[in-house]
Design goal:
mainly beta; Immunoglobulin-like; 4-stranded antiparallel sheet; about 10% helix
């Protein structure tokens, strides 16, 4: 016959084992984590870094049948960040789960090279003989026919400055569409 104290001790142990679930052994869930392309950094919902894909995680828990959820964030330079959430149950038979993310490449718009074209401009003044400057560069005296190069993009304006002794300086902004320019000096 077992002593009364030993019976109480064994009963207490059985109750503790039952409360802890399945003889107190930890339950596991294996999670295979992959991405396309591979090599993405993997973080959990707390921001903890786990490594790079592909990888296998083992999550240990003490309660069998518990439903758990983990959110994983995949980060790879040149790709949009992806987030995946996995809900799973922990069992004695150690189930396996998988999480996969197809990462989307960040595309930068292609910048085409500008094209350049020439336009003939005719510049006249009243009276003739005014000095013409374009963006501070002397071009000649009026009447003047000049060919200017323009870009297919960007600010297509140039500043013309007309100067003649005894008259006020006259400034004009021109565009490729201004083929003939006539200025009356004052």
């Amino acid at each position: 016959m077992l002593p009364k104290r030993l019976i109480y001790l064994m009963g207490s142990l059985l109750i503790m084992v039952h409360l802890c679930g399945c003889s107190g052994l930890s339950q596991r869930a294996t999670i295979k984590v992959t991405s396309n392309p591979s090599g993405a950094d993997l973080y959990d919902e707390t921001g903890r870094y786990w490594g790079t894909t592909p990888m296998t995680l083992t999550r240990r828990h003490w309660t069998s049948g518990e439903t758990l959820s983990n959110t994983f964030t995949f980060e790879l330079p040149g790709y949009q960040r992806a987030t995946r959430t996995l809900s799973y149950r922990v069992h004695l038979n150690n189930p396996s789960y998988a999480v996969h993310a197809n990462l989307v490449e960040i595309r930068t718009p292609s910048v085409s090279e500008p094209t350049y074209y020439s336009v003939q401009h005719t510049l006249t003044t009243d009276p003739n003989g005014s000095a013409v400057y374009i963006n501070q560069d002397f071009m000649g005296h009026t009447p003047l026919s000049i060919e200017l190069t323009w870009s297919s993009r960007g600010d297509n304006r140039k500043e013309l400055r007309f100067e003649k002794y005894g008259y006020q300086t006259n400034r004009r902004m021109i565009t490729p569409n201004d083929k003939r320019i006539h200025v009356v000096m004052q």
